[in-house]
User: Fold these one by one.
Assistant:
Number 1:
Amino acid sequence: MKKVIHCLFILILFVTKSFAQNPAVEQQITTLSKQKWQWMSDKNVDSLATLFHEKSMFVHMGGSWGKTQEIKVIKEGTIWYKKAEVYSVTVNIIDNTVILLNDIDLAAVVGGNEVINPFMVTEVYVNENGQWRMGSLTFSKLLRAVKIK
């Protein structure tokens, strides 16, 4: 009986450890997020279409929509994500899902007007068949002053 309990304890430790924060995954997602900001700035809709999951959702100050609309908004320049100045990144791993928070100042052109806003951006990534896909991107405006010069 003691042997069974000991084996179960080791198994539980192993399973718990396997779902703990993984530095390699954290780095991979942080790099992918950084690349995504560049793709958005460059209006690289082909790379973004591959990154965005078919069921992905996007929440902005002016509304929320799915992948097709987000790609259209970027392609047509309705929102041009000129530059995201990232001040901090927090990554949390839950099974095959990663939640990344970016504290940013976003310089953008929205409806022809250049704006800079401080945001906490929540990015949700899901690993499907060994590939990370974005499931959600949410912009939450912060009350702090813009830091970007």
Note: The chain has one domain: 21-141.
Number 2:
Amino acid sequence: MEIQNLASEAKQASISLAGIDAQTKNNALKAIADALHKNAAAIIAANKEDLDRSEIEKLGTPLLKRLKYDAAKIKESIEGITSLMMLTEPVGETLSATQLDKDLELFKVSCPIGVIGVIFESRPDALVQISSLCLKSSNAVILKGGSEAVKTNKILAEIIASASENAGIPKGWIQLIETRSDVNEMLKCDEYIDLIIPRGSNEFVQYIMNNSNIPVLGHADGICHVYVDKDADLDMAVAVVTDSKCQYVAVCNAAETLLVHESVAKTFLPQLKISLDKYNVELFGCDKTQAIIETKPATEQDWKTEYLDYKLSIKVVASLDEAISHINKYSSKHTESIVTNDKVAVAKFMALIDSGNVFWNASTRFCDGFRYGLGAEVGISTNKIHARGPVGLEGLLIYKWLLKGNGHIVADYANGHKSFTHENSKKKFYI
């Protein structure tokens, strides 16, 4: 019942939040950024408690990396909030306008979804990103972080709630739940929660989908690929693959599988191995790869694995078509990149790859809401409805149809006394 009460409070707050003006929201975001800076020492101390406990509990290295929330991460969070403040107000934007008839005007206008439930693991910085995005888009939010980050999440949620409410945001717009049983209760709150965004394993996401009537938006694994084509600039390819794999391994947009065209494999793979050896990357290769460089044998399971570690599976392919086929079979539909100077190959790759993000001559690590200019992200969606790719402000908005008439009635159109003009208009909704 307690979770029902929290969800009900969030729903009430979301109704008021939908009418909050842009300046008040931006003032609240600035207050949050200032409060994070002011309370940095306390946040780092809480995070150290989580890290120390998690090390004793032998939490995996990738999760420990995600869990760490130090001064640099706090600075990044503040920069993300500052970037968000600079974006134009997303709520109330006229997306299209149609004059149905004289003095009968139809507007498609952006509006918040309502109450967003977000379940995430390990990363306290995700809590700051998610809550600030929800605030900017006038959504209330219910957050469930991983138990490993319980202390950090608690202090962050308290700081954000206090700073924003003092700046005029409705009380209860941000809620934090802490246990797995709370999640199960949250899944029953379809009366109050409008959307759930789970961030976790494929099994976890499927569990959420199978145990709730609430719509679910998100992604499971991040099995991302880089394909080095026969017409690639090989120095560029080394840089792109190395960055995709090693710039930060414990994230969903890091590359997990490399595909290399057989015509360049003998030249390229030894060059790449020199670069990857600097990071002690463990390699798993197909038979053709093993004939060129030293790797462990790649199994069928390797093509399906999100390592989140300094590990990379490599396959030599005979053609662009084989690369596309492999990616569409094994990808989690997150992010794929082709390295080539052949524009015909690029066009085919980008048209046929069935993923939310498809890149040309660029690292997969660019798949990020902040880097896209979306004001950070609440998650990555591999869905094909509503939102796809990094879910920033746009993915947290829906729209409503606003019709403005002057005593118009349908009977006049049904009996032929009047007819629709359906003319496109450039007007914005007005009162």
Note: The chain is about 40% helix and 20% strand.
Number 3:
Amino acid sequence: MEDYLCEALSQACSKCHLQGGCCFEARPPLSQERIDILRENGVSMDAVEFAGYKRLRLKQDGFCVLFQDGKCSIHSIKPETCVAGPFTFDIVDGMLQIFLKRESICPMVRFLKANRQAYDGLFETSVERIMHLVDSIPEQEMAEILKIDEPETDLVAEITLPEKR
């Protein structure tokens, strides 16, 4: 994604972070590859927990353990679902369903709807990251992840998943 789009999205995201946004009660799933990246960049294994799937844990105040001083402390290496931001997913009958959170949940959605180039850029990046995550997570863990309800979202795309090898 273009640098200026990344900056615009980051600014839209930072306005929401004043209230915690999606970093509150966030439990992003982690592939082993993402855990390795986090560890290589100084994140302690204490930040990771296993509760049906590998994920970042929460602090006592309900915020992601890596949410510090009103922002993500690992922004450049954050988990795939964090990069996807207002886009989330489900898998039904071999189809990857991509959903967009509603404006009432994510203020960035208004910005994306007003800027087609930003929407398309983040959508493409999100699908790429989500597909990589889906391919990287063990099947049993993915089954647990798919149990998570994502209310107030709208289906925006369906993509046939390739058969696992």
Note: The chain has six helices and seven strands.
